[in-house]
Structure formats: C-alpha cells, structure tokens
Design a protein that fits this description.
There is one protein chain. With 315 residues, this protein is mainly alpha-helical. It has one domain (2-166, 179-314). 71% of the residues lie in helices and 0% in strands. It has 15 helices and no strands. Helix 10 runs parallel beside helix 13 (262-274). The longest helix is centred in the first third of the chain and has 36 residues, at 14-49. It starts with a helix and ends with a helix. 38% of the residues are buried. It is a multi-pass membrane protein. InterPro entries: DUF318, UPF0718_permease. This is Permease.
C-alpha cells in the first residue's frame, strides 16, 4: 500500500497537488462554514421554540422509542459527517438522551432521502434496502451499547454549558431590553462558530490534503480482487476521507468494472460517509478520547460487517 502511494507521489509534480489541495480547502472550508452557520442558527431557533424538556421527552434514553425517533430523525436530515455536528451540539445542550443522540450521529450522514434515491438506480432496490436496514439497525444498537457502557461520562461538558443571561438591573446599572429569539439564536450561533473555528480550519486543511495527494487509482489497487483483506482495507481508507455517500455513488460502476467487490465498495461508502478525519477533529472538541475512539470503532465495525454481509448475499 505504501509503496504504491510513494510511486504515485514520485510521478506527479508537487505544485499540481498543492494547487489541487488549496482549491479543495477553499471549497470545503467555505461549504462547511456556511452549512455550520445555517444549521447552528436553525438549531438555536428550534431550541428557543421547543423547550429542552420536550426534546428530552422525545429523545429520552430510558425508552426504546427515543432511539427509533433519533434514527428516523437522522434518516431524513441530509447532513454529511461534519455538518451534523451543530445538531449534535444542540441535542447535547438540551440534555437529550445520550444513546439516542449517538444514534442520530451514526445515522445522519449514512441515511437520507437523497442517498436512497441515488442508491436504487445504481445498485438496485435489494442492495438499497439492505444498506438502509444495516445502517439503521446498527446505529440504534451502537447508541444503545454506548449508553449501557456509560460512555456519556466522556463528553466535554464545558463546551455545552449555557452562558448566564443578563436581565434587569442585576447585570448592570442600566436595564437592557430582552433580546429577541433571532438575536439570541444569532449570538449562540456566532459563539459556537468561534469556538469550533480553529478545529474546522485544521480539519479542512487535512481533508483537502488527503483529497489532493491521494492517487485516483489508490482505492482500486488496495481494495481490488487481489487483496483478501479488501473490505477492512476499504473501511480504513474511507474513514479519513471527507466524502458524502452520494458523492461516491457515481464511481460505483467504475469500481465494479475494475473488479472491486460490492462489499469493499459498501465498506468504503459507510467508512467515508459515517466518519471522516475532519469530523474526528471537530468531535475532539466535544468528546474525550475514549468516546471518540469508540465512535470511530463503531463506524469501522459497521463498515466491515456490512461489507462482508453484502459479499455473502450478493456474490
């Protein structure tokens, strides 16, 4: 694997790769910043309208209904692995059940109407149905398992603490007008963006670098039919990448034509869609290492198990 990567780096001018990485960084950082601000603002508005107690009741961890609701919520939200972070922060601030919150985090980037609509014409309804079933059920099981094992204690609570609201004359000599819900949501959005900005900046630099320097045929060479460990290799390759599942689908036909198995392709799709190195950097702001490691392990395990399942059933 490393020899192939080294040979590729020796054949392409460094300036070309740097330019590609630079423009990829501009695109990724701009896209993520806009999505982060919009989604954070909408989540903040929702929390102004919907009491935290209501959110806790809907997504409580004590009832199985909360896990199913979280998985369904993740299935209808068209977020990528990074743009789901603002919703995650909102759920954690509202003290929603930890298990359902993690279920949402696993489900959101893997399942949404766009992914399903694109899957069917490319891979057929049987593969699509199995993919949806695996992503949904494993996400629920993973959230339930992490909650049972007590991983909630590995959340960094300092980022989730609400700032005290200034009201009346107790906060100064001059009484201030009560801010509108729009002003409150805007302030919360900007505060969160400032806190996450350094992590987003570094994450997108790394994500752009991976895209710019990774050879186009690297996946087909490493996860091709000649490699007996193609499925775990595909999952490992996918996790560092910042790639939507819908972005990968147009490449499926080319991968299949080059002999890559369906299982390896699905492992790549779940690995790259369910997690990414940029997302891991952002999550490090929220999670301590045990929870972050468990999150990545769940995505890797889901990708590998799904890959072997697809190969067993469809080859």
């Amino acid at each position: 694997m490393f020899d192939q990567l080294q040979n590729y780096l020796n054949t392409i001018p460094l300036n070309e790769m740097l330019q590609e990485s630079f423009w990829m960084f501009i695109q990724l950082f701009t896209e993520l910043s806009i999505l982060f601000l919009i989604i954070s603002f909408l989540v903040a508005l929702l929390r102004q309208k919907l009491p935290d107690s209501k959110i806790r009741n809907i997504l409580g961890g004590q009832k199985g209904r909360g896990y199913l609701t979280a998985a369904l919520l993740g299935s209808i939200t068209p977020f990528c692995s990074c743009s789901s972070i603002p919703v995650l922060v909102g759920l954690l601030k509202a003290r929603a059940g930890f298990g359902p919150t993690m279920t949402f985090l696993f489900t959101s980037p893997l399942l949404n109407p766009l992914v399903i609509a694109l899957f069917i014409p490319v891979l057929g309804w049987q593969v699509t149905a199995l993919y949806a079933l695996l992503a949904f059920s494993v996400s629920v099981l993973a959230g339930l398992t992490l909650n049972t094992l007590g991983f909630e204690r590995f959340i960094k609570s300092e980022l989730l603490e609400e700032k005290p609201k200034c009201c009346g004359s107790s906060c100064g000599a001059q009484p201030q007008a009560t801010p509108t819900i729009w002003q409150t949501a805007g302030r919360e959005t900007w505060d969160m963006f400032k806190q996450m900005f350094p992590y987003m900046f570094v994450a997108m630099i790394i994500g752009a670098g991976v895209h710019g320097f990774l050879p186009a045929d690297f996946f087909t060479e490493v996860a091709g039919p000649q490699n007996p460990a193609a499925i775990p290799a595909a999952a490992l390759i996918g996790i560092p990448l910042y790639m939507r599942v819908s972005t990968l689908l147009p490449l499926v036909s080319a991968f299949l034509a080059k002999g890559v198995s369906l299982g390896a392709i699905m492992a790549l799709a779940i690995g790259s869609g369910g997690a990414s190195l940029p997302e891991a950097i952002l999550l490090h702001k929220l999670f301590y290492w045990p929870l972050l490691s468990a999150f990545l392990l769940v995505v890797f395990t889901m990708a590998v198990l799904s890959g072997f399942t697809f190969n067993f059933l469809f080859t």
